[in-house]
Design brief:
This protein is 40% helix and 19% strand. By secondary structure, it is an alpha/beta fold. The strands form 2 sheets. A 6-stranded mixed sheet has the order 5-7-6-4-8-9. It has a 3-stranded parallel sheet with strand order 1-2-3, with helices on both faces. The longest helix is centred in the N-terminal third of the chain and has 17 residues. The radius of gyration is 19 Å and the shape is globular.
Length: 267
């Protein structure tokens, strides 16, 4: 009689898996259970690929070291801007670049809600629409309160800037206090509201914020609407390196994991 696995480690042992795809929901407070899943995969000699940002914020150094010790890969391209190769860009194509900081719009749910409010909907109506089209989750608090964006900021800082910033060091404010009237007035005034992410080196560390800001129309961030996102990097060589993702679908995240799979198994 075939044994039935009782947990991830048991399943990995029975399946003799070469790769684990980890896609559990984000827990911004501790990164679990994703961290345990990835740790188990690497311990079992499997590559670990995740779309979950939590493990990067809470265990990036540990999991990277464990992957190296096991001769396996820990990859996470789908964690920020879906499948856009942000981490691979710096890792593989921009060696020796020094990243001074970045700013951007990294949460599609709040972007969709703000766009709907600009078009005349109330906050609740715009949220309901975002849920209807599958952008917002049933419990959208992680997005509305800025947690999702803050975790993405922390992930970028840890990996690309090499600064082990804690989530509680990022100043965070969500969009829940914005009214439809305020959002529409800001757009009419030529300074629309966006949930803006910012990070900049500060001595040996980094200072970071996630909060609603009014952005002038002369700024590329002002024109990013719907499920689109943007990040503007400032480096020592490239003063302004911009990556924009225009209204991606769910397949973009899946592609990011597929691309990581190809990277992991290709000699």
């Amino acid at each position: 009689m075939q044994s039935v696995p009782h947990d991830v480690r048991d399943w990995l042992r029975l399946a003799k898996a070469d790769v684990l795809f980890e896609a559990t929901s984000l827990s911004p407070r501790d990164g679990q259970p994703a961290i345990d899943h990835i740790r188990a995969a690497l311990d079992a000699g499997a590559h670990a690929i995740t779309a979950n940002k939590g493990p990067i914020v809470y265990a990036y150094e540990e999991l990277t070291s464990l992957a190296a010790a096991k001769g396996r890969r820990f990859l996470f391209e789908s964690t920020v801007m879906d499948g856009v190769p942000i981490f691979a860009l710096f890792r593989d194509n921009l060696p020796a670049i020094h990243l001074h900081g970045f700013r951007g719009i990294l949460n599609s749910t709040t972007n969709v809600i703000l766009t709907g409010m600009e078009e005349g909907l109330s906050f609740d109506e715009s949220l309901a629409k975002a849920q209807q089209i599958g952008v917002a989750e049933t419990d959208p608090s992680n997005d509305i309160e800025g947690w999702d964006a803050a975790v993405k900021v922390a992930a970028l800082i840890r990996v690309l800037m090499g600064v082990p910033i804690r989530l509680d060091e990022i100043q965070r404010e969500g969009i829940g206090k914005l009214s439809g009237e305020a959002v529409r007035a800001a757009r009419a005034d030529g300074r629309p509201y966006k949930l803006v992410c910012r990070a900049r080196r500060n001595g040996q560390g980094a200072a970071a914020t996630v909060r609603p800001e009014q952005v002038p129309l002369s700024d590329p961030l002002a024109w990013v609407a719907g499920t689109s996102s943007i990040v503007y990097f400032e480096t020592d060589i490239f003063p302004g390196l911009v990556i924009t993702e225009n209204n991606p679908g769910l397949e973009a995240t899946a592609y990011g994991m597929l691309a990581d799979f190809v990277r992991a198994v290709t000699p």
